[in-house]
Amino acid sequence: MFERQSRESYPLRNIIVLALVVLGSFAVVFFQQKKKQIPAQNGLKPSEQFYAMRDYPDFRPDVAMYTLALRQAREAVQQRGPQNGISAPWQLEGPANIGARVNCIAVHPVNQNIIYLGYSGGGIWKTTDGGANWFPIFDDQTFLAISDIAIDQQNQNVLYAGTGDLNISGYPFIGNGVWKSTNAGATWEHLGLEVQSIISRIIIHPTDPNTLFAASTGIPFEANNDRGLYRSINGGQNWEQILFVSEQAGIIDLEMDPQNPDVLYAASWDRIRNNQQSIVSGPNGRIWKTIDGGDNWVMLTGGLPEVNMCRPGIAIDAANGQHLVVTFAGVNLQFENAYETFNGGLSWEIMDNQNLNDGFQGGFAWYFGKVVINPYDAEDVWILGVQTKRRSQNGLPWTEGAGFAQDVHADHHALVFLGPGEALLGTDGGLYKTTDNGATWIKHENIPCTQFYRVAWDPHSDVPAYYGGSQDNGTLTGNSSAINDWFRVYGGDGFQVRFHPEVPGLFYAEYQNGGIGYINNGDYQSGTEGLDGADRRHWDMQYLISSHNPEIMYTGTYRPYMSTAGHPPFWEPVGPDFTDGIVFGSNFHTISTLDESPLDPDRLYYGTNDGNVWRGNPFTQEWTNVSDGLPNRYVSSVKASPTLPNRVFVTQTGYKSNDFSPHIHRSDDGGGTWTPVSGDLPPLAVNDLVVLPGHADSVLFAATDGGIFITSNGGLNWEPLGVGLPHVPVYDIDVNNNEHTLIAGTHARSIYTYPLDSLQLGNDVSTYNPGRPQSTFAVQPTLANDHITLMVEQPGSSAKNEVLIFDLSGKLLETHNFTGAGFKEVPVSHYAPGMYLALARSKGKVWEQQKFVVGR
Fold first, then answer.
1. The listed CATH number (3.90.1150.10, 3.30.10.20, 2.130.10.10, 3.30.565.10) that belongs to domain 452-759
2. pTM for the full predicted model
């Protein structure tokens, strides 16, 4: 069984109003209805199914090796010098206006223009002007999933960050403990609790800042005794476990009495998340209290549930530490009840639950668990979910505090009040702000942290038009020239986009579980006619338009399908079950990828998420399983060679004890035999592969959980590609032939592109051409406060050069032009503290780079 609880289906949350849709109201209605028809399975948040399948069949990843691999990937970029074009900058294309999941919000207690946001995968972002501009301050670290940020009230330059994703929505969003900054986020120091992995909450003692409390849900993949609540009395240099509940239950929430810091309340939660089980409820869903600073704890009852429960949450009244509200989700994964106490937990009363029984937590209530008491009005209680409910006055029914009626994105995780009637709300679609007591909410950030599954580009557009299917934000389109003006063209969770190669305006988009849509100049129709609705399908069901005959299309469920009906397609099955059958559950046994040979119209390849690869002819329906010699792993991509008709590449993802190799294999006989070509890649999952045409299959790009790597000798040696791309998972890559760029769909930091012309590939593709050693470029000083000096020297040359300055997110800040040798002084006092990159470029090719740091 994939889940411990019953396989009863629970309704999905409603799809958010597509505020930016520009393709007509019919499309909005059509796609909203479509998403509502898709049931959640086993109480999972929908994207859980995608993450769960990616480690088949080995369900216990080795976190130590994963951590080491990420560190190696990061250090390889930081330590290398300028090398022959592979150090060109990545260009952030966007979007910045769409958003992603905000797990936590921290506001400066004195200056509310200073705000910190922690993302589920995109790191920590900061604003110093109240939200007009944001910049990343945690990108130098290995793990960019953030659960909590705490500010020292006595010294507001001191910050603590808890890494990992407390909502445990899927591997690999784990963390490596607690981090500290003493300069408002400019630099960070690691304080340990690495094996505890996910730090859900951090509290600083109000009068003794050396006393810290860190709550941990533990590593989600296994039961162990590292979970629980930890305390440090020396500023995080050492930690002691002061509350341990169970090997399968960690601490998900923590509150301190505002009048007595020796009194704390902790919420424990049963949570194990791997691919053989998903425990989301149990006997340890409880509330605990200490009155002596954590030395001793008691479990609170007095009216609280004493049966198996799902995730609890705690809120405490800022003006009265005896007044608390706690919430519980039930074993049915719906909201259960809210309980209130006015005597510090001695006794509890069930709050009036009128209007709280409408499924506002969507059948996956474990994903939420946040409750907040308004510090300016203790009767104003907010419970977060798919939409947020509030009780604005005792005895009155609960109403919608933030939700679809106010055009607020679904799924809410953090709420912070700035003043009476003024608050910030973190959602799966970014940050929102209200200044009128929740009557209206507006988007309050422009941060490029959208999580992409798939990317594409429009071959008919006169300007770069990038497309991507994103987690919880549909299918999006735009480019860097309008980074804050990307818009949605399709709803649901977005996946693959395909364009007709000859007909402008005709393309396909997709939502989860194979919801293919046909779009022809703004006219939307279904693209799934003929597909058997009973077929088990991949969450990210792949499909393509034939490069040999655009009237033919291919896709696959657990078996292959073909359409020869033109557009829109009519699908017919053309083969048997390509999977192992149902062993672990239907989600683990579907087709995960496919490709058509660009040289042979009668040759297709399919890969499955249970480790099978098939080759065959869809017209004769003759198929051969060519999996022998490959690891039994999830097949993330299969790519037919553009050079040799019998050559094919396969990438796979999934870790096994004592086997941490990235999996890339090549066959030169159509899959009869396989040769590993992963070379010296670090041990990271490989999610996609691009074979660069025109180079005898020697130039390959691999998208991994730690960025993108390049080989120019067919896989013998690999190097990280470019600078400015954060070390986050990249799930999909593609080549834009019109722009000569590589497109990267990151699953934490939006879409980036890389200039392929910068590679300077010569006739011998086994090596890079040398750069321009006769030219020099320097930045002085390398640690600056007010200004830097750019120095470009090309003896005997009058060549035109550009110097580009980027921040570490890949955002271009300034461009300076030189002819031959030259010096230029550049002010940097307006830059935020941190590291920057300066790159010298001629004729579109980067020939040297330098780093510098702006300090204060």
1. 2.130.10.10
2. 0.83
